[in-house]
Structures are given as structure tokens and as C-alpha cells.
Design brief:
Elements: H1 10-15, E1 17-24, E2 29-36, E3 42-48, H2 49-59, E4 62-63, E5 72-73
Parallel strand pairs: 1-4
Antiparallel strand pairs: 1-2, 2-3, 4-5
Length: 78
């Protein structure tokens, strides 16, 4: 897991953005957690599937999958 280090600049911390999908609803909405800087502090959000994909692309998020200790950079398939 990527942690904030003492020497990290504020720009480095703010550049790290994480998403963890918690549920994909039958009505097409994606429920997810979004964090900036630290994975432990997040907000819960919900977006339509297409908007979620755009959100992840715009923010260059790191996807966190359940059971995954270290996040891997997301490469969202088309």
C-alpha cells in the first residue's frame, strides 16, 4: 500500500487518487469509495456506469480491488 511519506510534497499527495468499487447495481449505478492522498480517508459516491468510467479517467485513479494488498494502476477496458 502506498503511504504518504515525510518528504512527499503536497502535489505528490494530491496526485494519488484511489477508487474501490463496492457495488454495481442492476439499475446501472456504480457505488464506490474515492480517496485522495490516503486510502483510509474516503467518500462514498455513486455514478452511472459511463460517468464512473469517465470519472476514473479524468482523475487517473488507482483501482483498489477487494483482497488486493497493494493497488495496481487501473487500465479500464473499452
Amino acid at each position: 500500500m502506498q503511504q504518504t511519506q515525510a518528504g512527499d510534497s503536497p502535489q505528490d499527495v494530491l496526485a494519488r487518487k484511489f477508487v474501490r468499487v463496492t457495488h454495481r447495481r442492476p439499475d446501472g449505478l456504480v457505488e464506490f469509495e474515492f480517496a485522495i492522498g490516503e486510502r483510509a480517508l474516503f467518500v462514498e459516491m455513486m455514478l452511472p456506469d459511463r460517468a464512473f468510467d469517465e470519472f476514473c479517467g479524468i482523475h487517473s485513479v488507482t483501482r483498489i480491488d477487494d483482497g488486493q494488498e497493494a493497488p495496481a494502476l487501473s487500465a479500464r477496458p473499452s
